[in-house]
Amino acid sequence: MDFRNRTVVVCVGGGIAAYKACDLTRLIVKGNGKVRVAMTPAATRFVAPLTFQALSGAPVLTDLFEPAADLTYGHLEMARVADLVVVAPATADLIARIRAGMADDAVTTAVLAATCPVLLAPAMNTRMWRNVATQENLAALRARGMHVVGPAAGLLADGDVGEGRLAEPQEIALAAARLLGRQDLAGRKVLVTAGPTREPIDPVRFVSNPSSGKMGYAVARVAARRGAQVTLVSGPTALEDPSGVEVVRVETAEEMARAVESAQAEMDLFVGAAAVSDYRPAAPAAHKLKKKPGEETLVLARTPDILAGLGARHAGRPGAPVLVGFAAETEEVIARAREKLKGKRCDLVVANKVGAPGAGFGGDTNRVALVSAAELAEIEGTKDKVAEAILDWILPVLDARRPRG
């Protein structure tokens, strides 16, 4: 998540989940953002202000009558420099006071003075969350333009199980990044495939490849950050699910093809970053194959060609989704990418040379060529940066083909 050149004011309410605001602060700082923290008096009884000062590198505002606050109008200064205010946890009491326009502590005053977006992360007991007063208060704040993330359902501090659990810091940080970032894919439905597939030989062996899934996951993550509704169909990887993305886990090429078929009907964009096996064992053994003298022959059968199938179905039709394929080649990279572009009837092929320094399987960086019918562009950098460049190329094509209503 990128918070460069952004200042986020984290307002901490007095609930048991206040400790999670420490992780939220850390995530924003890790994303190169500046954080200022304001705390209600009750919040200071759960987490010491010194903790937030150490994490943010800035003084923490806890009292409107602190000498430093008097000299600088701390609450107003916070509101003035803020690009975003995040209230986490937003307790039932705090939500009610914000709705009433109260300004009786550092948090409510900073929120009332803010002219930037405000993001609320509610946290409270399930019964308090479901109470009509809380729901009416949140509805009123949404009507005023405030944003809400969570709450989640789960085990609460009082032992109850249900709604009211503070959203995880990663989810709150992603929501904050979305509010601060580009939202040029808002309302778009994006389908991404990532990772390898595994084609079983027997119950303990399989045919696969070394794809880590990192490039496809980066595309899904960045598309979600830019406002898209993203479905990620992933082969077996060791990666965590990207926040804000619906993840469908599969093993084989056939399973991936079925998952894509189920999700493709309403898609605006397909990015096929998965390294799908071209062949599978024709007759997987039901039991583990035992070693025998001499040679063995493994008979292979073709797997479904997901990208070619989508191209045959959609290419050339009015309002067709944008189709993007990937090509990992060992030689004649551009020529083979152009062949794939034509043969699969897609709009863009992202090609890279296997084994090139700073590129390929497993790494955090990539060097690729964006190959289309009209142009060729070379991109290198982190996989998130490459994902941004791919989506930047796609955006004008998508807007021209599927104008927003």
Automatic annotation (TrEMBL):
GO terms for biological process: coenzyme A biosynthetic process; pantothenate catabolic process. The keyword Lyase applies. Residues 190-405 are annotated as: Phosphopantothenate--cysteine ligase. Keywords: Decarboxylase, Flavoprotein, FMN, Ligase, Lyase, Magnesium, Metal-binding, Multifunctional enzyme. In the N-terminal section; belongs to the HFCD (homo-oligomeric flavin containing Cys decarboxylase) superfamily. In the C-terminal section; belongs to the PPC synthetase family. Catalyzes two sequential steps in the biosynthesis of coenzyme A. In the first step cysteine is conjugated to 4'-phosphopantothenate to form 4-phosphopantothenoylcysteine. In the second step the latter compound is decarboxylated to form 4'-phosphopantotheine. Catalyzes two steps in the biosynthesis of coenzyme A. In the first step cysteine is conjugated to 4'-phosphopantothenate to form 4-phosphopantothenoylcysteine, in the latter compound is decarboxylated to form 4'-phosphopantotheine. This is Coenzyme A biosynthesis bifunctional protein CoaBC. It comes from Anaeromyxobacter dehalogenans (strain ATCC BAA-258 / DSM 21875 / 2CP-1). The gene is coaBC.
